[in-house]
């Protein structure tokens, strides 16, 4: 998780989100940027660029005035069924768009879902997302958040599209 600021892109004249990444290396932040730049979907936060300046890694992303789903649940309590279903459909659409392009998010949870005032939900935070064909299986470190892992991922097996879909339901019903 990194710190995110609202910023203004002087070159393009637009408001952006600027995330200082905690990525361990420049390759990791570049992977996150490539995956976040790929889907071009209304329910996925778009990554515009990655900048490494004096060893500090930054992601330049679409700015979305919003609250995280975790903040909404913490403040307002459990979502009404219709609201949870509406957000769930948007997450399913976002994941389908990612999967069609060979991407697996691997960490769908309430804090990685942003909800705008108009109800638009967007998936964000691609730190442990991977291209499906390069995901390693077994014996490696498990990426993800306990409580949101699909059973096969918790057992150390490959995270496929179905595993990410498994994770998309709990964020809508947490608490």
UniProtKB/TrEMBL annotation:
<dbReference type="InterPro" id="IPR000719">
    <property type="entry name" value="Prot_kinase_dom"/>
</dbReference>
<feature type="domain" description="Protein kinase">
    <location>
        <begin position="1"/>
        <end position="175"/>
    </location>
</feature>
<protein>
    <recommendedName>
        <fullName>mitogen-activated protein kinase kinase</fullName>
        <ecNumber>2.7.12.2</ecNumber>
    </recommendedName>
</protein>
<keyword id="KW-0418">Kinase</keyword>
<keyword id="KW-0547">Nucleotide-binding</keyword>
<comment type="similarity">
    <text>Belongs to the protein kinase superfamily. STE Ser/Thr protein kinase family. MAP kinase kinase subfamily.</text>
</comment>
<dbReference type="Pfam" id="PF00069">
    <property type="entry name" value="Pkinase"/>
</dbReference>
<dbReference type="InterPro" id="IPR011009">
    <property type="entry name" value="Kinase-like_dom_sf"/>
</dbReference>
<dbReference type="GO" id="GO:0004672">
    <property type="term" value="F:protein kinase activity"/>
</dbReference>
<dbReference type="GO" id="GO:0005524">
    <property type="term" value="F:ATP binding"/>
</dbReference>
<keyword id="KW-0067">ATP-binding</keyword>
<dbReference type="InterPro" id="IPR008271">
    <property type="entry name" value="Ser/Thr_kinase_AS"/>
</dbReference>
<keyword id="KW-0808">Transferase</keyword>
């Amino acid at each position: 998780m990194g710190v995110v600021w609202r910023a203004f892109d002087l070159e393009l004249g637009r408001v952006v989100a600027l995330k200082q990444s905690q990525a361990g290396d420049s390759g990791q932040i570049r992977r996150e940027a490539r995956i976040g730049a790929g889907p071009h979907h209304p329910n996925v936060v778009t990554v515009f660029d990655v900048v490494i300046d004096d060893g500090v890694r930054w992601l330049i992303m679409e700015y979305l005035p919003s609250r995280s789903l975790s903040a909404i649940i913490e403040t307002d309590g459990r979502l009404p069924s219709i609201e949870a279903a509406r957000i769930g459909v948007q997450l399913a659409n976002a994941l389908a768009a990612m999967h069609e392009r060979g991407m697996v998010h691997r960490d769908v949870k309430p804090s990685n879902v942003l909800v705008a005032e108009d109800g638009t939900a967007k998936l964000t935070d691609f730190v442990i997302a991977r291209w499906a064909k390069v995901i390693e299986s077994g014996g490696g470190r498990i990426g993800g958040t306990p409580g949101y892992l699909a059973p096969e991922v918790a057992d150390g097996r490959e995270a496929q599209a179905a595993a990410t879909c498994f994770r998309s339901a709990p964020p809508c019903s947490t608490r």
